[in-house]
């Protein structure tokens, strides 16, 4: 049995359903590889189809909130789109977003074509603080979200709050790379994901002593090392296009 994998970027124009005439064997649906023994079987990646359909809706939802939004399939495309959006010479700052590093954007902006204030390259707490304060006047602040609802509301949780502060006010643009793994149904689900999945995973990364590190989910702690001091819900962009969001059909960040 020959299996031909076909996936067409045109699907994005048709709500995730391909209407091209591929001479499908009778009785076959796109995405299924069963039945039709011995015949040519057409398959599509059903996960891609689902995410393309959902991604299109999330892009429209974000645009309705005065944000720029794009949907791409791969980390490589996300990097390309981000570099198209950020003019060379821009001043750039960022929080500790794993998604920015995972798609290669951190390395790309470290190449000397940008004025990147990198807190990972300084040693003292005073230098880190100075870089955090520069975020408010920079051209671009880069990051991700802890969770996003399918109608385009997103939630971020912060310990030091430099990241959520910059999201809320200051930088001319906030560019976010968001893996589809962070898109959930509702705003309530987004808060739940941020508190019970993203924050406990980040707590594990930091090796702190909090109930979530021991138990794997949030216990609404007041521990001295709590990383959930500020919770920001973003639902609209006052300055049109200040938020630029690239949704990626890959698992990125936490
Ligand atoms: S237990 Fe504390 S640090 Fe951990 S996720 Fe909950 S509030 Fe945050």
Q: Report the CATH superfamily of the largest domain.
A: NagB/RpiA/CoA transferase-like
How much of the polypeptide forms β-strand, as a percent range? 15-25%
Which architecture of the largest domain would the CATH scheme give at its second level? 3-Layer(aba) Sandwich
Strand order of the largest sheet: 3-12-9-6-4-5
Tally of distinct domains? 2
Order of SSEs: EEHEHEHHEHEEEHEEHHEE
Spatial shape: globular
Largest sheet: 6 strands, parallel
Bound molecules: iron/sulfur cluster
State Rg.
21 Å
Q: Which fold name corresponds to the CATH topology of the largest domain?
A: Rossmann fold
Rounded mean pLDDT is 87
Number of strands: 12
Give the N-to-C terminal Cα separation.
Answer: 39 Å
Helical amount among residues, as a percent range?
A: 25-40%
| Broad structural category | alpha/beta
- Poorly predicted regions are 1-25, 27-42
Number of alpha- plus pi-helical segments: 8
Main CATH class of the largest domain: Alpha Beta
